[in-house]
Amino acid sequence: MSNLLPLLSWLAFPVYVWQGLAVRRRTPRLLPPEGPVLHTLTGHGEPVRLLVLGDSSAASVGIVDSEQGLAARLAHALNRDTGRPVAWRAAGFNSATSGQLRDHVVPNMAAEPWTHIVLSVGTNDTKNFHSVSRFKKEFGGLLYAVRAKWPRARIVWSPVIDMTRVPALPALLGRILEVRAGAINRMGTGLCLERGALPAARLPVVDPAAGFSHDGFHASVAGYRAWADHLLPLIALDEAGAAASAAMAQSDGERDGGQCQ
At 58, which CATH number? Predict the structure, then answer.
C-alpha cells in the first residue's frame, strides 16, 4: 500500500495547488542572513575544508546571523572536537532544486579542495511536486557532478524532514507532501549509497515551535543548532561508522517507502 500512496497523491494535486498558493501568499520570502558565507577557524594540523551546498537552508535563511547557521555551526563543532583549522563555505540558494544545483551551481564553482561536503537539497523538489523519476535523474546527476569535481571529499546528504511537522503547512497539505517526501528520501538514499555519498537519517523535529523561524518553514537558531548536532557524527565518523550510519539511513528510507510518478 505504501508504494501506491505517492501515486494516489496525484489525486490530491488540486488541493496541493489551492493550499500551496495560499501558503505562498501568506509566507514572507526571507533573504539570506547577514554575515560571512565563508570563513576560516584557526587550529593545528591538517585543515578541514567544509562546503555546505544546496537550497535556502544551506544559506541559513530564517535567521539574522550566518554565524548561527548550519555551515558555521558544523565548522565550529569540528574545530572544537578536532582542534584542527576549519575553512567553511555556505553555498545556498533560495528555491534551488537538485537540477538547478547540478546545472548552474556546481559547474560554476571553483574546484577548491573541500574535504567534507554537506548537501541540503530535496525539499524544493518535494514541494514543487517533482516526480521521483525526475529527482532520480537530477539528484543522481548532482551526486555525479559533486563526486567528479571533489573526488576525495566525504559527501553527506541531509534528507527532507517530516513535512507534517512544518508549521507553515496546513495539515492536509503537509500530509500530501509527506507522502512524496518519503519517496524522494527513499530514492535519494539509494542514489547516495550507489554513488559514493553518505545519506544521513532524517532530522527529527522534536519541537516545531522552537525549531522553525517566524516564517514557519525555515529553521530557527535552535533548529540549525539541532541540525548541525544531528549531522556532526556522520561527518566525523571513520569509514566503519559511516557504513553503519548509512545502513541506518537506508532502513529509515525503506520505512518511508513509496515512489512518485
Answer: 3.40.50.1110
- H or E element, residue 18: helix 13-26
Q: Please, are residues 83 and 45 in contact by the beta-carbon 8 Å criterion? A: yes
**CA geometry: angle 88, 235, 75, nearest 5 deg:** 25
Strand partners, 212: 219
In a domain, 82, yes or no: yes
Note whether residue 130 is domain-resident: yes
Q: Which residue has the cell 500530509?
A: 175
Listed residue (11, 173, 153, 183) closest to 87, CA to CA? 153
Q: Would you say residue 42 lies in a domain?
A: yes
Q: Whole domain around residue 205: which residue ranges?
A: 5-256
Grid coordinates given for 169: 503547512
Residue with cell 495547488: 17
| Number of domains the chain contains | 1
Q: pLDDT digit of tens for each residue in the chain (261 aa)?
A: 445 555 545 545 555 554 555 556 566 778 899 999 999 999 999 999 999 999 999 999 999 999 999 999 999 999 999 999 999 999 999 999 999 999 999 999 999 999 999 999 999 999 998 999 999 999 999 999 999 999 999 999 999 999 999 998 988 889 989 999 999 999 999 999 999 999 999 999 999 999 999 999 999 999 999 999 999 999 885 544 445 555 555 565 555 544 444
